[in-house]
């Protein structure tokens, strides 16, 4: 695994990118 020291953690990127995606899917299937 690459050293993420001083960088944005991959899980944080996934969370920030995943929230609007999940929200869009939720609205789409609402």
UniProtKB/TrEMBL annotation:
Organism domain of life: Eukaryota
Transmembrane segment boundaries: 6-29
Pfam families, per the entry: PsbJ
Protein's GO biological process: photosynthesis
Keyword Lipid biosynthesis on entry: no
Keyword Plastid: yes
Keywords, alphabetical: Chloroplast, Membrane, Photosynthesis, Photosystem II, Plastid, Reaction center, Transmembrane, Transmembrane helix
GO cellular component terms given for this protein: photosystem II reaction center
Protein name, as recorded: Photosystem II subunit J
Gene: psbJ
């Amino acid at each position: 695994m690459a050293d993420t020291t001083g960088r944005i953690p991959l899980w944080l990127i996934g969370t920030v990118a995943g929230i609007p995606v999940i929200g869009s899917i939720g609205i789409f299937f609402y």
